[in-house]
Amino acid sequence: MIKIKRRWEIPECEVTPEPLYRRRREFMQAAGAIGGALLLNPWAGAEAALAIGDYQHKAISTDEELTEEADATSYNNFYEFGTGKEDPKRNSRRFRTDDWEIRVSGECEKPGTYDLEALIKPLPLEERIYRLRCVEAWSMVIPWLGVPLGSILKSFQPTSKAKYVALKTLHDPVRMPGQQRSVLHWPYREGLTIAEAMHPLAILSVGMYGKTLPNQNGAPVRLVVPWKYGFKSIKSIVGIEFSETLPQTSWNMAGPREYGFYSNVNPEVDHPRWSQKRERRIGEIFKRDTLMFNGYAEEVASLYAGLDLAKNF
Ligand code: MTE
Q1: Mutation test of ligand 1: which of 231, 263, 279 has the most ligand atoms closer than 8 Å to its C-beta?
Q2: What is the pLDDT of residue 41?
Q3: For the chain, which residues make up each domain, given as ranges?
Q4: How many CB atoms lie within 10 A of CB 104?
Q5: Ligand 1 centroid – CA 11 distance (Å)
Q6: Burial call 204-239: b when 16+ CB within 10 Å, e when fewer
Q7: Which parts of the chain sit beneath pLDDT 70?
Q8: What pLDDT, on the 0 to 100 scale, is given for residue 4?
Q9: From 290's CA, which of 115, 142, 249, 283 has a CA 20 to 30 Å away?
Q10: Cβ(239) to ligand 1 under 6 A?
Q11: Exposed/middle/buried for 289, CB within 10 Å: 0-12, 13-18, 19+?
């Protein structure tokens, strides 16, 4: 059997332009010389995070033009802070995310309540430039800083019964005033199959554009699953549950005919109220064709082999 290397399995020295690779080495040496503080604490500053991540996963990063940071941080969906695109930035200004904890439960050997920093800090942050495509037919290209979701999930030692992973956002109508209105079933819930969750493209993000994640983009930690519609990328996560049965998701509960569990970006399956064939990249005038799995078919199509994607939308 011939083993074909996936794009993310290529060693960094093969995929990184040499000057960049050298610069990283120099950075590592410099950091070592000042006591390694930056490396031990990737959250110590935006620049440190970028320098660590810059070389990694070039192979799965797109080289498309980045969306302007100002657009990506001011045109948002985060219903906990209002349903208008400009509400999240305005209404989340005072949202505090210190001492953030994540409760891990269900089918795993290590359930418990974990401090976010303790979970993420031991892992090297990576920068990955991914497309995010929303059901309303707009898309962006964002440089995310994060860690593979699978690396975190494995540390909780899921049992063989863990078929799905359910994720929950904080439920606190005082801190998240949008939850005072029942526009969705709160807390915001999302889920993935365990195979999707373990896929190397799925990350837990703690930053973007080389900086800590702004509140409106899901501080302090959010999911990024680039081959699915944006609503799967749940923000401000406080709960991870391994389950044997299909988890409920907020958008599916709100409109089961419109929002399925899988929600893979699929130009062939229309949303009941609109076509999903084309999208507008923020910052561009003309629409472009939407790609199957948001352009990540080579990486993820095998996850859905044998599944009718019109039924499992
Ligand atoms: N997560 C929570 N908790 N609440 C939300 O309303 N909106 C989703 C997703 N994650 C949402 C959420 C939707 S519909 C989209 S398109 C993306 O976040 C938008 O992410 P962005 O604002 O960082 O671009």
Answers
A1: 231
A2: 38
A3: 12-301
A4: 21
A5: 33
A6: bbbbbbbebbbbbbbbbbbbbbbbbbbbbbbbbbbb
A7: 1-59
A8: 42
A9: 249
A10: no
A11: exposed
CA–CA gap between residue 14 and residue 11 (Å, rounded): 6
d(CA 129, CA 230): 15
Answer whether 276 contacts ligand 1 (Cβ < 6 A).
no
218-269 pLDDT, tens per residue? 999 999 999 999 999 999 999 999 999 999 999 999 999 999 999 999 999 9
Fold of 12-301: Sulfite Oxidase; Chain A, domain 2 (3.90.420)
Per the listing, tokens 């305005």 go with: 90
Beta-bridge mates of residue 260: none
Say how many Å lie between the CA of residue 76 and the centre of ligand 1: 7
Q: Is 77 in the pocket of ligand 1 (CB under 6 A)?
A: yes
The pair of three-digit structure tokens given for residue 259, joined into one six-digit string: 């929002």
pLDDT number for residue 27? 40
Whole-angstrom distance, CA of residue 192 vs CA of residue 225: 10
Q: What is the pLDDT of residue 303?
A: 96
Cα distances (Å, whole numbers) of residue 31 to 39, 42, 47:
7, 11, 12
Q: HSE-up of 67 (CA within 13 Å, CB side)?
A: 25
**Residue with CA at minimum distance from ligand 1 atom 11:** 78
Task: Please give the helix or strand (H or E) that residue 131 lies within, else none.
Answer: strand 126-133
Query: 141 by DSSP, 3-state: which?
Result: strand
134 close to ligand 1 (CB < 6 Angstrom): yes
- Report yes or no: 12 and 55 within 8 Å, Cβ to Cβ: yes
Q: How many CA atoms lie within 13 A of 285 on its CB side?
A: 0
Which pLDDT value is given to residue 121?
A: 86
Residue 197 main-chain phi, psi, to 5 deg? -65, -30
What confidence score (pLDDT) does residue 300 get?
Answer: 95
Q: What is the pTM of this model?
A: 0.85
Read off the tokens for 103.
């409760």
With the C-alpha atoms ordered 86, 92, 93, 97, is the resulting torsion angle positive or negative?
negative
